[in-house]
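Sequence in, structure out. Go.
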Amino acid sequence: LSLYLQNLPETIPYADPSIPQYGFDFFTLDDEKIQDYGPIGAVNHELEVRMGQRNKGPISFKERGPSLNAVTNVLGGYLDQYHESPETVLLVKWVDDLTIAAAAAFKSASIPVSSFLLYLGVTNNLPTIQLPFESRTMAAKPKESVVHQPIQPLSNSIDQRYIDLPEVADLRTSGAKIHPLLLEGTRRCYKVREGEVWKEVRCIGSKKCGTTWNAPRSRDRIMGHLAKCSHIDEKFHDRATEFLAGVAKGPKLSIPDVTVEQSNAKDSDDGEVMVMTHHGSDDQKKTANKSVKSFSPFISKGKQDLKERVDHAVMKFIVCCGVPPTVVDSEEWKQLLLALNPNYHTTSSTALTKSLILKEAAKISEGIKDYLHMARHLTITFDGGKVRRPRSLYTIHITVPGGRTFCMELNDADICLLPEFAEVIRQVRGVLSFMSHSTFAAEHFEHQRALLNIGRGLEGIGDTRFGTLYWAALSVQRGIPAFQAIIEDESLGIEIRGNLNELFVPGGPRYRFEMDLSKFLSVVGPWARGLKCLEGAQITADHVYFVFLGIMSQHEEEFRENKHRLLNSTMESTRQIGNGRFDELINETPQSHDLYVTTFVLNPVYRNAPIYKQVNPMAGPTLTITKSVTGVITCATKPPQDMVSRAALALQRILRREYGDSYEVGKYPDPVGEMKLRNPMLAEFSPMDALASFRTQFKAYIKGEDPFNRKMRTNESALGWWKALQRDELANVLAPLAIKAFSVSPTSMPDERTM
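Output:
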């Protein structure tokens, strides 16, 4: 402010030394005003008299010179003298307003403030104030009244649309002080709009996120933004989330273990609100009133506790039930809660969305971090999509062992492109398109479906197309009798576009349509149903291979009988597509995808399966053709690799990765301690000892020897079976590897459900 006032533009007239208008160089206060207003109030009153009111916009300087420049000495002196008084905020606001007024004076004179300050710093050796458009290396040590920012400015913290203001030290000793994170994550600034100066607070990432708030800073709103802004450093997210979690209302977050039955959990007392109504005589009420006065402090505390509990319960109801938050602003809602308890005053939707929900979300985030910090064998998945605006949306999920995801894609849309199915797919699309646009036809179809006891109605074709094509075609096949009923009723006059009515009345077109529909469903059905099976929460990697075998075996049986008279080219193409998908999933990248084969072998239910000799029974043997020097051509088949051998090699690769570089010479002073961090269950073994024990234990498992001869219970998973063996000295190397393999979730269903 001192720099600004000493160098105001010449468009402002210089003060006459004999009759200065401001006269701050000889500033004194009247004793009566000090008695009436207090020292700070008297200074504030005198500044208003000399500088004018500020409620109609920024101050306009009428003259410049020493009599005006001395206002900084006045403000600085009283701020130092009364720094313990909370009333100093009045003087701090004067510093802000005068700084804005001076910067506006430069702007009105067409003088860039940045050029002005750089000129002063180079020519006069004056201290400069770092502005958003200055280089960080040119900023000198700030004045004492400017607070040092403990976090270095981010590369995107410069926003040319705003002129930043320096932070003024908060010297108050009482009352709530500004949170340090608000100073680090935001900047006080102003923006001139059509002749008016608007004082604002902006996010340090406002260049990208464009977020600003009206001054002064609103703590909860800014913290909520800092916790999720994607254009600032992650350390802001963590600190803001930690703060919001600390001030959140309601009970402490507790994430139960997946083995705990939800039905046995008792409801928390914090979620209950007891409403009691007492009826009595007037004398009893008078006596009660006298007692209430003596307990008024406790009553106030009780009302506060009641409000916090009910606010937390209302917030959970709004969020978990998907109710619009504006419901709490309605008169009906207020009347409901008033009837339940007159002592509770309902919160507003603004407080709900800007404070309560943000704090609860932060508390949950912190609780999840603490829970995952102690968990092992986590699976991380991500997915992307778009929302309506349109904007990109990316999701990241962390899945813990036991089903709460290794990424698997089983999209076989190529089957839908086979020439034999092109016409029937076109017909199904035409029928469903007509029904989705004709409310009249849809209502009559639903009526006939109910009369004919057809359980489910029509299903649409979604964006993913492959899976939904099957279920949509199946719904059309299921609804053919209902279609026939509404089309044969001439009084309804239903005419499906594209001459598709003939598909549902007796005759050749209907017979051919039903045959083509059956062919399509018989080929696509195994894949669609397999995908549906893999959408469960408890799916593990061995289930993927198991389902794949079911798909291939169903195709083999269908093609051998060929009841639907499929073309040879269709069956050959289906085999080719299936084998291609199998190779992509299982064979082409064994360093990672052998997980499916490995977990299948490690599932004791499948231990004696005859499939072990050939991974893909539908694939033909590998044929090798060679030509000798003499010109003799020979053909030979290569036997497929044994699944057990593949699983053994894959488990050895996992074991090697578990140890990594922990035992490299000179890498870690305490390899055992490093292994306790990586995998405590293997810390007692050196790499060579672990490998020797693994080979012995894996052979014993394949043979079904003790302790691997233990039967699996009906309600026990493969992961649970191996966890029961992890403490056995005869399984203490193989069991940790199996637990890691079965902890991986093979699908990305959490991401799909979110999207």
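Check: The longest strand covers residues 379-387. The beta strands are 163-164, 186-193, 196-203, 212-214, 379-387, 391-399, 622-627, 633-638.
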